[in-house]
Amino acid sequence: MRRAIAASAQTGTDTEHGGSVDTLRTEFPFELPRGYVDDSGTVHRSGVMRLATARDELVPLRDDRVRENSAYLSVVLISRVIVRLGAIEDVHPGVVEDLFASDLAFLQDFYRRINAEGHTRAAVTCPSCQENFAVDLSGGGRLGES
61, 80 in Cβ contact below 8 A? Predict the structure, then answer.
């Protein structure tokens, strides 16, 4: 039932009642700055993160690794909300542990943006001309690339 509701929320139609509803975006694509390198040497950079549920934030608090080291909370939490990372669909804490530090920092910020702020845009300032503008962090192109 949960998947049917999520699917109807993404499409903007209420399949049970035949009417329209406001759309709710629950999944957000992203592009890692460096990428996860698996055991065979394949680099996985594109992924999808979903909105977190209350359960996603509560369950890791019972994890022994988190109890021993509170910094591990973000590893467990991020692994729960990443739907896909490249060809990997089972993103577990071991995968997140093996990310480069810059990629983990990116995902932590991305998580905060989509769950607390509701969007993936970031305000930036051009270092040359000091012009302010917004960029989308979801991966519609990498910063500095055209």
Answer: no
- The pLDDT value given to residue 94: 96
Report the SS3 class of residue 54.
helix
* Cβ pair 79, 92 in contact under 8 A: yes
d(CA 107, CA 121): 14
Cα separation values, 35 from 44, 73, 81, Å = 5, 21, 17
Q: How far is CA 7 from CA 53, 57, 74, 121, in A?
A: 16, 22, 27, 24
Q: What tens digit of pLDDT does each residue of 18-60 get?
A: 556 678 889 999 999 999 999 999 999 999 999 999 999 999 9
Q: How many CB atoms within 10 Å of residue 130?
A: 7
Say if CB 60 and CB 80 are below 8 A apart. Answer: yes
Query: pTM for the complete prediction?
Result: 0.68
CA distance 104 to 36: 10
